Amino acid sequence: MMNRTYRNKATILLLTATMVSIGMLDYSVDTLFGANAFATPRFCLDRKVFDVSAVPRFNRENILKDRQATFDTNDIYGGKSKGRIYVGKRVNKPKENRASKKLSDYFATTIPGMEKVLAKELQSLTDVEMSSIVIGKSGVHFRGTKLTGMDSLIWLRTPLRVMERLATSDAIVDPQSLYDFCRSVDWKSLLHRNNTFKCDAVLGRDIPRGLSHSQYTAMTLRNAIKDCFRELDNTDVEDSSPPSTDVSEPHLSLSLYLDRSSAMLYRVWSGVGSLHKRGYRDSNSPTHKAALRETTAAFMLLVAGWNSSCTANASRPLCLCDPMCGSGTIPIEAALIAADVAPGLIRYRSSGERQQPSILKWPDMDAQQWEELLDRAQQRDRRPAMNSPLHGAFILANDCHEGSLRLAAQSAGLAGVKEMIRFSCGDVDQLADKLLEDDSENAMLPDIIATNPPWDKRLESGSGDDGDSAWRKLIEFARAVWDPKARRPSPSSSEVEDRRSLLPPRYPLWMLSGNERMMWYFDDSLNAKAAYVHNIKSQSAAGNLQLLKYFFKSSQ
Question: What are the C-alpha distances in Å from 424 to residues 55, 450, 473?
């Protein structure tokens, strides 16, 4: 057989590789066909040929180390089998990855005014299409794979909900057309009979007659889903009842949006609850009556430029201060951002316990992919190194109410960032004196001040003098700690003074508030220049919030 002439190069190549693998032939493929005969290395696993241009090239020496030419294929397509190396021309991609690469349209909701920051966050997600990120009303549209949707639940800090669009229609004119539209969805692939679901309806402008009531519209969707399963009932099946509804903990949460004759049906990846609930608030403890939403605090910090690189220099990390921290939302979110902690780690792996999101109960979801993304986020978590007394605190949190500080310290402990924050109780002017008089090695002076000062109902009384006094102390605090001449010289504070010489000539004070009169009152009297940065329409009783950036000129 060795004397026959082979004209088919693929056949010769197959025979050559087999002989090399068992040590019968000392010639390489390059010797027979030239160095560039096959520019892209290819191999076959269990007689299926794959492209391995991204895998390190194998050579004769590596093959001869193992006479059977076997190798682990886990990194190629997730299998546990081992296969021989075969060489050929045809390339078939793994079927396991095709379903996960299917693109879907998503919509992440947020508070109006925060869309641009959310759009910037979306750019870092897995498999997201950059060109598909479009800012909408109270949210951002984007396109990606299922990995993109999972990544959004783990990493995004500013959205309230993440939803995947299932179907759309521009022909909704009455309840019957809406019912037919809902029946057209393949519910069999989205729900099992033993699952539960929940339906919500959001109404826009010029709703067709008969659909102007949100509960009735949601009931139309619910009836269409149940009728679909009743139609598919099999009498041989013992349990042929349709899925039931559950408003508290459903397996599948649906949202239907109507605007004129258009309808968009979404399934909600984030479930029933809002993503602003990170999971570090103790449900058994009282809640601060004026607690700031975690998403709003994260938005404020991201606009201020606070990120994980601010603490990259372990010897001289930037210092952030909240002199009126309340329940500590801003300091805790600042610590999580600095330590590169994904919000989903706390939400789904709080206190070492793994809490499964509702998406893992869906028929088309892969629990292994979800765990891999969480493991990847766990590897980026810097809390084990930063949340220790040896690292030291780099965030200052102060408040005049001891009860608020107890809640803040408790939440910081549940979030795993308590050692990164230095809590103090006292008035704002007392905090300035403490910082200026501190001549220890751990002396801290703020580089950024971010706070949500008291306003409206948070003021101790309704008189304007109390509000003016609180805001005046805040501005005076900023001027005091940022004035190099105000700090008392001491031999041990030279390093701190050297650090302050590196700061820019203007120091920022970021404030989130809803009292416009007080914002502009201090412009001239305290020589601070204020500028509107964002107007936020809060979805609570607080109404409109404004995020301002005050500048103070240094006297250097």
Answer: 54, 16, 16
CB burial of 378-416 (b: ≥16 within 10 Å; e: otherwise) equals: eeebebeebbeeeebbbbbbbbbeeebbbbbbbbbbbbb
- As beta bridge partners, residue 498 has none
- The model's pTM is 0.76
| 148 closest CA partner among 129, 166, 135 | 129
Residue 82 gets which letter from DSSP? Answer: B
- Whether the CB-CB separation of 293 and 238 falls below 8 Å is answered with no
Residue 476 has φ and ψ, to the nearest 5°, of -65, -35
Residue 534 CB neighbours (<10 A): 17
Long-range contacts of 276-279 (CB under 8 A, 24+ apart): 276/160, 277/347, 278/336, 278/343, 278/346, 278/347, 278/415, 279/346, 279/347, 279/348, 279/350, 279/355, 279/414
- Each residue's pLDDT tens digit, 186-241: 998 998 888 899 999 999 989 988 898 999 999 999 999 999 888 765 544 445 67
Alpha carbon of 52 to those of 48, 76, 77, 399, 547: distances in Å?
Answer: 12, 8, 11, 59, 51
Tokens 């693109």 — which residue?
A: 103
Helix axes 464-481, 428-437, angle to 10 degrees: 10
Instruction: State the angle between helix axes of 464-481 and 516-525 in degrees (0 to 180), rounded to the nearest 10.
Output: 50
Q: What are residue 107's DSSP bridge partners?
A: 141, 163
Closest CA to 547 of 522, 520, 512, 514: 512
d(CA 322, CA 121): 24
pLDDT band at 353 (very low <50, low <70, confident <90, very high): low
Alpha carbons 72 and 366: distance in angstroms, whole number: 22
Give the whole-angstrom CA distance, residue 512 versus residue 326.
13
